[in-house]
Structure formats: structure tokens, C-alpha cells
Amino acid sequence: MANIMIVLDGLEDMCYKELGGKNPYDFGKGKIFLKVEAHSSTGRLATTPQGFEPDTQTCVLTLLGVQPRDIPGGRSYIEALALGIPVDAQDIVLRANFVKIDDKGRLELPTCACPPEVAAQLLEEVAAQENCEITQVGSYKSLLRIKGAAKYLDAMQTHLPHQHGGADFKEVLPSGNELAEYLAFRSLELLEKYRPYTVMNWAQSVKGDLPLFADLHHGLSGAMVSKTHSPMGVAVAMGMDCPDLPTCTGDTDTDLRAKVRCTLDLAAKRDFVMLHVGGPDEATHRKDAVEKAEFIRKLDAELLSPILAALRDGDRVMVTCDHMALCSTGGHTDQPVQYWLYEEGKSRSGADAGTLPGTGAVELLCRRDQEPVS
Prior knowledge:
The protein has about 375 residues and is α/β, with parallel strands linked by helices. Helices cover about 30% and strands about 20% of the residues. The strands form 3 sheets. A 7-stranded mixed sheet has the order 7-8-1-9-12-2-13, with helices on both faces. A 4-stranded antiparallel sheet has the order 4-5-3-6, sandwiched between helices. The protein has a two-stranded antiparallel sheet with strand order 10-11. Strand 10 (about 325) and strand 11 form a beta hairpin. The two termini are about 20 Å apart.
């Protein structure tokens, strides 16, 4: 029987005037989301462990059952895995985002791409530094590998750009050791040269291991469908299938039909499939509640509808998100997130489990030792 967890990145949000006082989900949902709501058991999942930032990697790992002690502190090495970027044990990897600074020295949101000619110059400047290799992985995202610098990991402190919109840029630059101070200096130096654009480093990490999905879940086989680098890298590290999706992106312009086909194919072969869709979160970072709501409407028709239509009796789908994300700020929050657990052929309506640990989500979806509530 199929077990599909649909993770709509950053789905939950606040209400906005431009949406008639509704939140993007309530504004955008159609008849298929309504069907899931009406026939599912529900509750909330605590996906951000204490002491962690509410980012996609942490929350996805929690949903996959990884305990806080095994969650890496930064996402960059995991993203490098997804992209096949070689990383040695002595290297450190960091995100290098293009950012824009206003005339008062504050970090602007939404995070945006530089003009192409500026982006090329910034990348060239960073790559020219000793022992540095930089790989652009999106319109505003890059990964920076610094050879032989793993020793600087523990004392380094950085900040998520999308959590600090409006902050004094100097206050959210890397700090804590010699390497961090150098990276901060270079960011300010590049800002003076290419104002209002520069590079901001964060999400530092080194090579490490994650527990295998099958080991965590008593031999269950798992697969990931995503075009967002963090979940893709998590799948590689945890021994889960993660097919290439050349027509897809991690944004609202993704090929939803290709994701559906891949998900249903894998669900026939594997015990568990996570389908991760990054578009709602990217619209959030652009502070565009209308775009987010319109994409949710598209998800209803082009993703959720064909998946439910293909289910057989006993197949299950859990619809949830990794973290709440606010178009008002462009950032994430750490509140528990809603889930709906739908089983084809049986009504589970009326069952509300309250707030559960996010690490139990796979078991909740896959176990068949209890009859659904009718």
C-alpha cells in the first residue's frame, strides 16, 4: 500500500488584506484540499527541535524521523551532496547568497538575484580568494567551499538572511573566529565595490553522516521527490531514492505533472515517498501572498487531484508543511504545523490527535496497526 507524505514548504501563513482577510492556503485551496480536510484525521506536528532554526533541512529531517542529536547544524554540505560537489573532511562549506543592502545599511528582503553582470563579478571575486571554490545553484544562491577550513566550524556564528530582513547588515555578518571575520570583511568590501549588492555567508557545515532511512524505520524503503537542494541532499545522505527531475524547479515555476508522475511511480515500488514542493516558501521569501495563494490553487488542481485520483483502497497520503512561513516578514516561524492524514476508501474525519512530535510522522503515516477513525 502506498504511503505518500506531501510536504508543501512554508504552506502555513497569516491572513492578508490583499487576500480578503484570508491566509494564502484558505484563499487558494480548492475542492481537493477541501476533500482531504473533510475525510482526514488531523493534528499538528512539532518540526523544529528546541535550539534549532526553523529551516527546511531541520524540519524535513525531523519529519523523516531524525532525532535532534543527529541533525547537522548547517545545510551547505547536504546541499553539496545533492549537487555532486566533492567535499573533503577538512573543508568547510557555506551558503553564499546574493543580498541587497539599503541606503541605511539594512538587509533588504525579499532576497533577490543581482543583475547578471553584477552576479558574475561577485562570483569571480569570491572564487579568486585563496582555497575557495564557489558554485552558483540558483538565481540568488551559491555554495562556497573553502579547502582545509573545517577547523573554523565550531566557533563560527552566522544568520539566516530570510530571518533578518531589516537588520543592520553588519550585525548579521559571520562572527566568532578568524575565518568568520574575514568573510564579514569581504562582504563589506564587495558591498563598497558593487553597492547595493554583495554576498552573505551562512549555513556553515562540514562533511558528516546522517542515519539511513531504512535503519530508522525498521527496514522500510524510502524515496524523495524534490528539486530543492536541501531535501535532495538529505535523500542522498539517508540512502533514499531521489530521481533527477530535469523539467522541475524548487520554485513556483516547477513542472508539477512531472513530480506527480515520479511520485506515483515510486509509491508503487517503495514503502514511503516524500514529495517536497518548494514553491510556497519561495513566494514567501518574495513577500508575495498573492503568488503564494495562486500557487496553492495550482497545487490543488495539478498535484493533489491526480495523486488522489490514482490511489487504491488503503493507500494513504499525509499533507503537511515543514514550517510556517510569513509573507509579512519573508521568514519562517517555529510553531507546530498542521497535517491531514487521508486514507483512500475510509473516512478518518473528526479525529484530532493534537500536537505530536514531528519525528513520529513517518510512523503515523505508514503504520497499519490501528483502524482509521470513522
